[in-house]
Specification:
Blueprint lengths: L6 E9 L9 E8 L7 H11 L4 E5 L8 E8 L2 E3 L3 H14 L5 E6 L2 E8 L11 E5 L5 E7 L1 H7 L1 H6 L7 E5 L4 E7 L3 H6 L20 E9 L9 E9 L3 E3 L3 H16 L6 E9 L7 E10 L3 E20 L1
Parallel strand pairs: 2-3, 4-6, 11-12, 13-15
Antiparallel strand pairs: 1-2, 1-17, 3-4, 4-5, 6-7, 7-8, 8-17, 9-10, 10-11, 12-13, 13-14, 15-16, 16-17
Length: 321
């Protein structure tokens, strides 16, 4: 741990996996003492130094109550209001570092996130604990949809293999300034066709959701219902024009789950809950498993979003600031 006044301790964890180095999405978590003040540029530079998809700055509580912690989430190009694998990775690490810790509130730019650490989930075979996060319910389907000619600019090979050229795809958001184009490719074979692309999805968000920090493409295939257990299995790939392909995108998995729930609510007047197991990173040899539970009603929309996953610690060190 850091001992000098110009040092900050950090951990790196692989999130949404229990296998070191070959699964999940790496996350750096920098521990910021209450006596420290880091400006935005300093956080951005540290994030760029790690050069991971996300870096968390976890602030020590100024009060005696350690159950509420502020966290800032950075990517090499800026700050994010909310992201899934940073929240799960931080919750999991808190549980690992504090033997009696089970629940906390993480304060993000998108609002409060209620997290917990399940010490009862460890099994003799897996030796794994799970963390869970109840995310703010701010789901929104944008008015714009991605058209075939726009998909062709981003994914020409995929677009050429689609028979129906009139198909359009939804754009949805779970946090302001973040949006995902949700493209159902229909099969695992079509998911293989997806390629990295430098083209930003050419869609305009609704006025109250602008300006957008991130617009990415989330390609998915849903296994037939009933083929495996109680969870619906979804295979996904997230493509970002700058990052490339991401091994695990929890906020995208939650956005997709909310969208699928809302489509099922049409014509259903009661409360509905759906549980998804979202697999990502399979095409990068970094398989990640995210579990999402969403609840909603036809008139009220999405009322609860819970993201679950495991993690594994891979690195501990000191930053010289």
């Amino acid at each position: 741990m850091a001992e000098n006044s110009n040092e900050l301790s950090y951990h790196v964890v692989d999130v949404f996996t229990s296998t070191k180095f070959v699964g999940g999405n790496p996350l750096a978590i920098v521990h910021v003492p209450a006596s420290w003040t880091l400006c935005r540029d300093e956080k951005l530079n540290i994030s760029r130094e790690f050069n991971l998809s996300e870096t968390v700055f976890l602030h020590e509580s100024v009060a005696q109550d350690e159950s509420t912690r502020k966290m800032d989430i950075f990517i090499p190009s800026g700050e994010l209001p909310l992201a899934g694998h940073p929240v799960i990775g931080t919750a999991w690490l808190l549980g690992e570092l504090h033997p009696h810790w089970e629940k906390a509130t993480l304060i993000t730019k998108a609002g409060e996130v209620y997290v917990s650490y399940d010490r009862q989930n460890q099994t003799a075979s897996a030796h794994r604990h799970d963390a869970s996060a109840v995310l703010p319910c701010n789901f929104h389907i944008q008015s714009a949809r991605l058209e075939h000619q726009q998909l062709n600019r981003m994914q020409p090979t995929l677009a050429s293999k689609l028979d129906d050229k009139s198909t359009t795809w939804p754009v949805a958001s779970l946090a302001k300034s973040m949006a995902f184009v949700l493209v159902d490719v229909g099969s695992m074979e079509m998911l293989e066709v997806v390629q990295q692309s430098p083209v930003i999805p050419p869609v305009e968000l609704d006025e109250e959701w602008q300006p957008s920090i991130e617009i990415a493409s989330y390609f998915y295939y849903i296994e037939p219902v009933g083929s495996t257990g109680e969870n619906e299995i979804i295979h996904t790939r997230m493509i970002h024009h700058d990052v490339g392909e991401d091994a695990a995108t929890g906020i995208a998995a939650c956005t997709l789950s909310c969208y699928l729930l809302t489509q099922g609510l049409q014509g259903n007047g009661g409360k509905v809950e759906r549980q998804f197991e979202v697999r990502q990173g399979e095409h990068m040899d970094r398989r990640s498993t995210m579990r999402v539970s969403v609840v909603g009603e036809r008139d009220a929309g999405v009322s609860k979003i819970e993201l679950k996953g495991s993690a594994v610690k891979v690195m501990t060190g000191v930053l010289h600031v």
